[in-house]
Amino acid sequence: MRFTVAVLPGDGVGPEVAAEGVRVMKRVGERFGHEFDLHYGDIGGASIDKHGLALTPETLKMCKRCDAVYLVAVGGPKWDDPLAKVRPEDGLLGLRKGLGLFANLRPVKVFPMLVDSSNLKPDVVRGVDLVFVRELTGGLYFGKPKKRWETPRGRRAVDTLAYSEREIERILRVGFEIARTRRKKLTSVDKANVLESSRLWRQIATEIASGYPDVELEHQLVDSCAMRLIQRPADFDVLVTENMFGDILTDEASMLAGSMGMLPSASLAGVPRGGVSRAFGMYEPIHGSAPRRAGQNIANPIAAILSCALMLRYSFGLLGEAEAVEGAVNRVLEEGYRTFDIMVEGMKKIGTREMGELIAERI
Ligand code: IPM
Ligand code: MG
Questions:
Q1: Has 64 been annotated as catalytic?
Q2: C-alpha distances in Å from residue 267, one per residue of 4, 73, 136, 168, 271
Q3: Which residues form the pocket of ligand 1, taking CB atoms under 6 Å from any ligand atom?
Q4: Taking a C-beta distance cutoff of 8 angstroms, is the pair 44, 10 a contact?
């Protein structure tokens, strides 16, 4: 089959890590007889430097014409001024909104051979295999009013946490559908003891649960969820959250896996049914641009490579191909190869390119 992919390498380690994802896609193409047409574009700081905008209308249009978007990382100290008119992150938010990517999947799986790389005790992280389903185009990030102004008594600023029934329902459905293909447990995260939007969220979750009798639904307050995530993370299967709650909890959860360099993500414009789909989506590792690591061939490309696997699964409906990529990552880790971020004594330390090559060879 033939697929078109928009590739947006972005800033910092983005370009070198994207190259390894592309290497893996090419290998999958050869091995399984598919063709991936790649269209490169600018995003984030790289786009600000060239065009004065973090996301140009041309890049957005190009992404819309493709079957999926592969984005690596945006941002860096160069563009960090809090008063700046344009920020690299605007590129990311613009893509999410502009492409209607409302469902952000962030799987956190602790590879058995990496339990010692986590800061947490091996007994706590062993067996962790969970997926966050984070709402991505609503809530506090996008609610209006959102502004800052001067008053006689000082400066003020406001952000708004608003959700419609439709927005809540579709993200919960993604959670239920994913839970169905896994251990059938869904944790709906909210702050229903304080927030009105959370009370609506909780009510809708309970209403639509009747359509998924095979999935066990639990409600969990966001603060105690943060606690349980490091207390007994292996208990979770699928968690579904509001945009900002998900932003915070997924950074916390990333530490279970030892390094952010291991974690992929998918942002979908549709509800995947049965664990695979042909939904339009954007795929990105959850680590940032790591400017201090850039250009040294040391960054871990595994998150970016696993993001390709998610693209194969959720946008191209290619389950076997996705599993081949995940299996290859597993093999390379089993053979003892490690990038610096997951290195422990007795293992073989390698760079970005070598890791990409070893994984591609094993597909
Ligand atoms: C993430 C990031 C982004 C977010 C930033 C870079 C805008 O933290 O993807 O989690 O807050 O969503
Ligand atoms: Mg974040």
A1: no
A2: 17, 14, 8, 16, 11
A3: 89, 92-93, 247
A4: yes
> Residue 122 in 3-state DSSP?
helix
75 CA closest ligand 1 atom index: 6
Claim to verify: residue 131 and residue 238 sit in the same structural domain = yes
pLDDT at 168: 98
Nearest CA to ligand 1 atom 7: 89
How many other CB atoms sit within 10 Å of the CB of residue 282? Answer: 27
**What is the 246 CA–ligand 2 centroid distance (Å)?**
8
What's the structural domain count of the chain? 2
Classify residue 193: in a domain, yes or no.
yes
Distance CA 158, CA 164 (A): 19
| 247 belongs to the catalytic site | yes
User: DSSP label at 104?
Assistant: E
Is the residue at 82 inside a domain?
Answer: yes
- Taking the C-alpha atoms of residue 10 and residue 303, their distance in angstroms, rounded to an integer, is 15
Nearest CA to ligand 1 atom 2: 247
Do 341 and 221 belong together in one domain? no
- Residues near ion ligand 2 (CB < 5 Å) are 247
The residue from 141, 163, 283, 314 that is catalytic is: 141
Q: Residues with Cβ < 8 Å from 30, sequence gap 6 or more?
A: none
Q: Which residues contact 126 (CB under 8 A, 6 or more apart)?
A: 110, 112, 115, 234
**Which two structure tokens, joined as six digits, stand for 323?**
């599993």
pLDDT digits (tens, 9 = 90+) for 119-161: 899 999 999 999 999 999 999 999 999 999 999 999 999 999 9
pLDDT in the model for residue 328? 98
251 CA closest ligand 1 atom index:
10
Report how far residue 301's alpha carbon sits from residue 359's, in angstroms, rounded to the nearest whole number.
Answer: 10
pLDDT band at 118 (very low <50, low <70, confident <90, very high): confident
Q: Is the pTM of this model over 0.85?
A: yes
Q: Is 109 a catalytic residue?
A: no
